[in-house]
Fold this sequence. Notes:
By secondary structure, the chain is largely without helices or strands. About 10% of the residues lie in helices and about 10% in strands.
Amino acid sequence: xxxxxxxxxxxxxxxxxxxxxxxxxxxxxxxxxxxxxxxxxxxxxxxxxxxxxxxxxxxxxxxxxxxxxxxxxxxxxxxxxxxxxxxxxxxxxxxxxxxxxxxxxxxxxxxxxxxxxxxxxxxxxxxxxxxxxxxxxxxxxxxxxxxxxxxxxxxxxxxxxxxxxxxxxxxxxxxxxxxxxxxxxxxxxxxxxxxxxxxxxxxxxxxxxxxxxxxxxxxxxxxxxxxxxxxxxxxxxxxxxxxxxxxxxxxxxxxxxxxxxxxxxxxxxxxxxxxxxxxxxxxxxxxxxxxxxxxxxxxxxxxxxxxxxxxxxxxxxxxxxxxxxxxxxxxxxxxxxxxxxxxxxxxxxxxxxxxxxxxxxxxxxxxxxxxxxxxxxxxxxxxxxxxxxxxxxxxxxxxxxxxxxxxxxxxxxxxxxxx
Length: 419
């Protein structure tokens, strides 16, 4: 008996150690969250053997309709699951992805325990404004990003949490913005409202000025006829393509000193103030597809200028560049002027004013009777390959490549949309 006692103690200790090993094993770290794939554990477990811890086919703390990858334990993916309602969200979830479903309503019940959400993606669903519970999003004090694009919203969703930084509302039917809709959005840096039904009257109260940290505003593909008033001075990127804007008030951009990129193509601009774009930080300017008839002053730091599809017959370089300062050169590198009414290439003086310019795309021009004109130089490149002594004036492949590259240019930064 004296001899067996130490043996029993040894076996008992070994059993406890084995039990403890699997009791503290982190199951959720090795489970593949996709139930369609076979789980390959680190150890050769068998389901009919008890190791002191249960074997589970699903991930703990995740809705059965969704998946929660072990390498992203705070994320829950419910994408393209044909869901019609939002499943219950566990308390630990921070990123929630519910896009490409058939969800029609956003109610408060599924979010009762979800107090740590930082990102919600409800894009590509069938959500209507009247089916969103009042204040359902405002209850998330840590929410940074909210996707509601590609739904059936008629109104701007409000109230929203003060923590919100990025809000995507494109591709909806929004035509109403309550006067207090932007109240409290003091940390919002990006707002996308492209592809909606916004009119000038909606923005008359200067409600956009309340977002003092806003850096990017997308209002493309709406029904605006004038420039939006009261934009915050923090704005750096402004997208106004595909509206019906016909003029820009003088000194309009004086209150937007940080503006970096302006896209206002596909509008009805005709006569604009000569010095309207004199902004020290402006790098990209797209005023293509308008009705402009003359050139304007080019700010020193502008690099990319798009003037295609206008009514310009002559580009006066001295208007664009009144003087040359060798110590402060203009930075223009790319100029697109196809589909205008030019009869000859731009005067070579342009290369003295803009010493960094490397490409001018002339493409096809339109004559007064509607016929197409091909200039002698359709594509000018400042820097040629070493094995080329002169410009190739009729290289169809080169023209096609340059034009094709511009055809793929997407003026609408959308999740979008990045600039």
